[in-house]
Design a protein that fits this description.
Layout lengths: L1 H27 L15 E2 L2 E2 L8 E2 L3 H4 L4 E2 L8 E8 L6 H10 L4 E5 L1 H6 L1 H9 L3 E4 L13 H19 L6 E2 L5 E2 L1 H9 L3 E3 L16 H10 L5 E6 L3 H16 L3 E2 L2 H7 L1
């Protein structure tokens, strides 16, 4: 009798394992639009693979698929256009020089700001707006948003920054969102879209965010000139001393290569 009972328990467990496998297989093979690369539902880090000089890199999510979430990392175009973006978690004295260079070249940019930046540097935020730049949402506290699973918590990070921006500038924040550290999930992208946001990753960046370990001018130019491409969304950090020192010359060199600068709202209208 005991032997028969044990056998029944064994068969039941095997059946459960088979059902679990089939459920997992079905989830892993959800039908997606043809010709697109799926995004993992769990947390992921934005990444790029550069294949050919002068050509856009391959992202770890396909540009066409990202469009389903109103998300972008590059513009598919042969036009030599560059979209400049700056992430700013705090102010350390380099933003004024960056704004000076942008003004000199009449180059529009988007500054993705966090709560600390708006609270401590309201005059610079107002200068960004006055000089024709866009301020985007980089969340209030700069958390790993891919670890936020509830709609309420996700919306609060963006909505609190919107409120602070409006209180500081008297203007409504443009609904452009950049995930802190490029950490995201499919559900994050959907939540941002549901809030009316466009999400922007990037197709060109370099390691410029370590305040006490800044790249040299030569290292910066090697990456930023060698990997530029039509339709690039360039990510730079306004905390970078190197960026503050080289931006005027960098923009000049890009112009000499035949590139021009445009704003992200034009990328959206062209998509």
């Amino acid at each position: 009798m005991n032997h028969l009972l044990l056998r029944k328990k064994y068969v039941f467990r095997v059946l459960l394992l088979v059902l679990a496998y089939l459920a997992g297989y079905s989830l892993a093979h959800v039908t997606r639009p043809a010709g697109t690369k799926p995004i993992l539902a769990e947390a992921s880090d934005w990444g790029l693979s550069f294949q050919e000089k002068g050509k856009a890199p391959i992202g770890n999510a396909d540009a066409d698929y990202l469009k389903n979430y109103n998300a972008y990392y590059v513009q598919k175009t042969d036009d030599n256009v560059i979209y400049l973006t700056f992430d700013a978690g705090y102010e350390n004295g380099n933003t004024a020089a960056i704004l000076d260079a942008l003004k000199k070249h009449q180059a529009p940019a988007t500054f993705f700001l966090v709560g600390n930046y708006i609270e401590t540097s309201p005059d610079l935020v107002k200068r960004m707006i006055a000089e024709g730049h866009t301020v985007g949402n980089h969340t209030f506290h700069h958390p790993n948003m891919s670890e936020i699973s509830t709609k309420e918590a996700f919306e609060k990070e963006l909505a609190d920054l919107e409120a602070l921006f409006e209180q500081t500038t008297g203007q409504t924040m443009t609904k452009f969102y950049r995930p802190p550290q490029g950490k995201y999930s499919e559900s994050n992208l959907q939540m941002a879209k549901d809030m009316g946001y466009a999400t922007f990753f990037w197709s060109l960046a370099y390691v410029d965010w370590y305040e006490n370990d800044q790249p040299t001018k030569e290292e910066a130019f090697e990456k930023l000139l060698g990997r530029i491409h039509p339709g690039a969304i360039v990510l730079l950090h306004s905390t970078s001393k190197t960026n503050g020192e080289i931006l005027d010359e960098l923009l000049t060199k890009w112009e000499e290569m035949g590139y021009r600068f445009d704003s992200l709202d034009h990328l959206l209208s062209a998509s």
